[in-house]
Design a protein that fits this description.
It is built from 12 helices and 12 strands. By secondary structure, it is an alpha/beta fold. The strands form 2 sheets. The protein has a 6-stranded mixed sheet with strand order 1-12-2-3-4-5. Strands 6-7-8-9-11-10 form a 6-stranded mixed sheet. Strand 7, helix 10 (366-370) and strand 8 (379-382) form a beta-alpha-beta unit.
Amino acid sequence: MGFIAMILLVIGLIHFYLWKRLVRDPLAAGWPRRIGTAVVVLLAILVPLTLIGVRAGHFMWLAWPGYLWIAVMFYLLVTLVALEIPRLLASRLWVRRADRTTAGTTDRVDAPTPAAPADRTGESSEAELTPTASPVLAAERDSEDGRDSNDDRDSNDGKNSEDGKSDPTNKNTIENSKADKADKSETGDAEGVNRRLLLARGAAIFAGLTAASVTGYGVKTATGGPQIDRFQMPMAKLPRTMDGTRLAVVSDIHIGPLTGVDHARRITQVINSVNADLVCVVGDLVDGSVAELGEFAAPLADIQSRHGTFFVTGNHEYYSGYEEWVDEVARLGMRPLRNERLEIAGLDLAGVNDLSGAEQGDAPDFARALGDRDTNRPVVLMAHQPVAAVDAAPYGVDLQISGHTHGGQMAPFNYLVSLEQPVVSGFGRVDGVPVYVTNGAGFWGPPVRVGAPPQVTVIELRVA
């Protein structure tokens, strides 16, 4: 229950983030936002119904829309997260610059114009040019000056009284200035909001188009025929009679409710086209019971090779009833290798059960499959998971062939896969063991492959 609760929490958080970036930020309040919110809630419910219900055999009609939405959701999340840094930079450099410009304009206040200084030049000149008068004339002048002084005071008092009254022209100017500032502030705020809205809508549109385009490409790739991947493997102990031996390696066919019968038929045709000496099916053949998927697997009975077709279990066989599928693949003409090996013309071919079989009492046994053998012969080990090479290393394995990773299936998911498996796709070495990992010929979950096309790998063994 704890694991399911964690999955539901993650799904909820992802959809909350998508709602914020695709609904809340770019859509106006009201009906558009309410409709967008309802759609996101329904899609959030669709994901667990698909992952749990479809896998349990219920709500099969939800398989295609549910898994397609999971793929679109994944690429929406990846795209929007990648846009966060450019979005932040654009917000700082573009939107905030507009805000600062607006603030600078509205805060600017005109300084009062200082009054012009009185011109006293005439008075000084007149005083300097007036000659000294007699005492009588001086007295008369003083008397006249006194009257003039009183008149001036009365006149000044009148002017001061008028100045105390508010000037209608001045008042209108101040009010107009305040209105201009308010208009500029509102214009600046509107411009900032418009720029933020433009960024939000641009990011949402770009993310939507990107996710839809990538998912469409991925569907076409996943549902098409597998590519042929070729690799040459030199072996020092390989007998010359086995030089040039071709192994057709296929894994993760994942016959399921979305594949139909044509999926297995296409893969069979590609395998037969390479004229392999050995065909190695390294697990995860099916996603369902024999009763549900037996008819979809039937074309695999037509696989042709010189020395036969061999099979080992993958983790998905243990989800689908491994015992009945071991019997079914034998009926289809494949030889199950269950912790055992065969000698084929000077080459040992060994196979171990998948590591997840331990939970159902069907664990891999490396000692039984690889121990007590002639070390002068080279040995090729079939093991579903690349990490099994850690347990195979003490037995001197010359080559391990694996699948399980799907090559990541939907890039950039391959980076997460690398945290669990030492080799994600192609050739690598694990504790000294040469390991080749094929991408697989099918898909699990979303019918989408991006950056990891479906493969049938042809490994040609060469004398070193």
